């Protein structure tokens, strides 16, 4: 990528982020620009090394090709093994639900693609190799998007902490224990909500969360009880107990605040892995405000981040469907052509 295009992408990303950081596009543009810059630096280092240690052009080209090949392969092997190990830990500690298997499935997928590539090379299976080449586009799209999501959500978490004083702090609910008590993950959210409320004396704390099919009472009721036990003033707490999704959390809370004449920006409080998506929903719903996250156990993060990324892709399903269909078109065309030949 040219230096000019890299600068254009970087400047555009910064401008968009300055206007509203609650979307992924600035992160995507800055990630592409950073990748281009990194490759330019590597190219410069290889070129400098060639000047200091004169090598034939062929050897230099081979060195550059090995760098481009080995680094992604080794990184993919490390990523795949890490995800598989994390998936096993998740299943042991949290159960075998599909959500808890995401990191395991992702790790198996990464290692499986590498294994198929090795098979294609070792057996000279041309059709399989061509299919893998055609998969570079869609896999790269999903992979680059995930990297951008990880990087930009980390940047956003710092930006959100500097948000102006809110009129309301919204603690978003999550599942309760079978006895209706608040589990550690939800307790962290409520604690951060109460701590944040203490920093803004003019704000109210909204406990938002409905009652799931397997819950003995609403999440909001349990959250209010827990918040009161750790020092939240009852007169500054409001309860929204009808929502079942994050979007409903925010929509119904907006209506609750409007009914009470409370206006101004809000600050949604959730878990760290969920904060960026909550912020994107605030933007989509036209609600002024930001989202911050309470810390989550490290072993829980990989599966949780994968789940949130998939939810983010779903939230923008039209754009992503068009992009993936376009990138998959060459592979589908090749498959159709192979059937026609037979």
Question: Can you put this structure into words, describing what you see?
Answer:
It contains 11 helices and 5 strands, in the order αααααβαβαβαβαβαα. The chain starts with a helix and ends with a helix. It has helices spanning 3-19, 25-52, 57-94, 102-122, 126-160, 184-199, 219-229, 246-259, 275-284, 301-315, 317-341, and strands at residues 168-172, 204-208, 237-240, 266-271, 289-294. It has 3 domains: 1-54, no CATH class; 76-160 and 302-342, no CATH class; 168-296, HUPs (Rossmann fold, 3-Layer(aba) Sandwich), CATH 3.40.50.620. It has a 5-stranded parallel sheet, sandwiched between helices. The chain has 342 residues and is an alpha/beta fold.
Provide the CATH superfamily of the largest domain: HUPs
Multimeric state? single chain
- Total helices: the number is 11
Average the pLDDT over all residues and give the rounded result.
Answer: 89
> Radius of gyration from the CA trace?
24 Å
DSSP strand content: 5-15%
CATH architecture of the largest domain: 3-Layer(aba) Sandwich
**Secondary-structure element pattern, one letter each:** HHHHHEHEHEHEHEHH
Shape: elongated
- Helix-and-strand structural type: alpha/beta
* Beta strands, count: 5
CATH domain class of the largest domain: Alpha Beta
How far apart the termini lie comes to 41 Å
Strand order of the largest sheet: 3-2-1-4-5
